[in-house]
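Encode chain A's predicted structure.
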Amino acid sequence: MIHPVRVSDGSGIWYPDDLVAGLEWVFHNFDRDEPAVVNLSSGGYSLWGDAIRDAKNRLADAGAVVVVAASNDDEDACNWADLRTNVRVINVGASSPGDTRLPSSNWGSCVHIFAPGHENAVAKHGSDTELGYRSGTSLAAPMVAGAAAQILQRDPATVPFMVKEILQGSATAITPPNLNGSPPYLLNAWHTFTKVGGPNAISSHPSEPSFVHGGTWVVLPFGGNDVWSHQWEISKNGGSFKPVGQSTAYTYLPIEWEWTTLEVRVTSTTQAGPEPVVVNTRTISIEPTFTGPCTPHVIC
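Encoded structure for chain A:
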């Protein structure tokens, strides 16, 4: 269901406090038991900027995926208070047909992903059939909101921060130049994504209870045609990678007192959309951990 929330009067005039009121209305009225995506094709405020930012953050903290246009000033989005949001909010820049940043789009670390925003087709005001064409981040943000809704349709339990991570993890690269510190993520609605969960430090001391002796890593795939194959490989002390398994999980148990810098790599393959094969590779570097008087050179 799409639910419009109007913050302007009948002539299209509105003020920043109207926007805060609209966000507060959504906060009090959206169903916490159902997934929700809020698209805000409006961003870049100094007046009332802190209040707008706080309203966005509050809505995201309540469980809604909040997607915001990063505005069109060709400057650092972090200059605007309302765009200095928490990690759950998704600020969207606009890309051009060449997969570069649209020259008018804001940029910088407060932009989290780019999406097409040049001459996008829109339903034209005053007509039930006619299309218009508009450019800017206000057109890019709804594309990301729609992609977020697809993710939630597939898995309604996905939390806002994970939605953001899936969007970024499955993105293609936006082309330099002029990214100016922006993350190089360009929306890819096929959403093929893998995440690897597991420790980033392990101990080779089997009797030390404070640390994990060895470790288990699990690959968490998302998207594609839901049929994935995996290949785990490990590298010790910068050596070549060797295959060690093909399941969704891999466990490494070191020899006692083994001093090894370990890299665990998994390559996951699926089929998605018109692309015959999509490959995602994740590598984790694991440093060994020793405690107390025990070191590689001092035996307990």
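Residues 290-300 have pLDDT under 50 and may be disordered.
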